[in-house]
Write a structure and sequence with these properties.
Blueprint: H1 4-24, H2 58-62, H3 84-95, H4 101-121, H5 124-130, H6 133-148, E1 152-171, E2 174-190, E3 196-199, E4 205-216, E5 225-231
Antiparallel strand pairs: 1-2, 2-3, 2-4, 4-5
Helix pairs in contact: 4-5, 5-6
């Protein structure tokens, strides 16, 4: 027969068990799995590495339902309906359903500023990430020559007034888009003594550039790279 102390301890044990169960809850089979430090996660880029992804990624696009768009409204604000530019964008979008022209235009503006700044700073690493091999070699040659003469460039963006898509086409699986940039820039080049030999540190200059970006749509790399440059009118 249980004595009074045994009964008290049993009652106390039951009480503690019920309290723990109410606080901690019960397993339902839908709990998150325990943390695994070896699970593959998104790679972390080294500090200072700059990579601009111009088009929209598949994961971003798939998160939003595709809504039907009227033919004349598809490239509104980017290209006139029925124009060669609109036809080129149509071809690119048909080959890559995740292509987003507005996202591309935003990324192109960012890339433009980054490339101009990196060229002035002689930042070869950033340029290699954003330029095609041929263009990178041209920029590298210009930077090396400038350094050999002891010259330095100071460049500062005041604004990018416009970034308009002027051409778009698809060559097999290679998409190319040309953008006309109009910007305001303060730029000055100094010789090894610090004397100004080009530009003006006190003057804002209007600059127009026409750049062409390209991307192989069959590649897993979502980034567009600069493949051609020319001074615009």
């Amino acid at each position: 027969m249980f004595d009074i102390y045994t009964i008290i301890f049993l009652a106390l044990a039951v009480f503690i068990f019920l309290r723990l169960r109410s606080v901690l809850g019960q397993r339902t089979g839908r709990e998150r799995p325990p943390y695994d430090p070896f699970t593959a996660r998104e790679p972390v880029r080294p500090a200072g590495e700059k990579v601009v992804s111009l088009p929209n990624r598949a994961t971003e696009a798939s998160a939003k339902p595709v809504e039907p768009v009227e033919p004349g409204e598809r490239w509104k604000g980017i290209a006139a309906a029925g124009s060669p530019v609109a036809a080129g964008l149509d071809a690119i979008a048909a080959a890559d359903p995740n292509f987003d022209a507005n996202h591309f235009a935003t990324g192109a503006r960012q890339a433009y500023e980054m490339i101009v700044t990196a060229f002035a700073d002689g930042d070869r690493r950033t340029l290699r990430n954003l330029l095609s091999r041929d263009v990178a070699e041209g920029f590298e040659h210009a930077i090396t020559e400038r350094e050999s003469r002891g010259e330095t460039v100071e460049s500062k963006f005041v604004s990018i007034d416009s970034a308009d898509i002027t051409a778009a086409e698809l060559r097999v699986r290679n998409a190319q888009i040309t953008v006309r940039f109009v910007s305001q820039l303060v730029s000055v080049t100094r010789d090894k003594t610090g004397k100004v030999i080009d530009g003006n540190a006190e003057k804002v200059t209007d600059v127009t550039d026409v750049w062409t970006f390209a991307r192989d749509l069959s590649s897993r790399d979502p980034n567009w790279k600069l493949v051609a440059t020319e001074a615009g009118q």
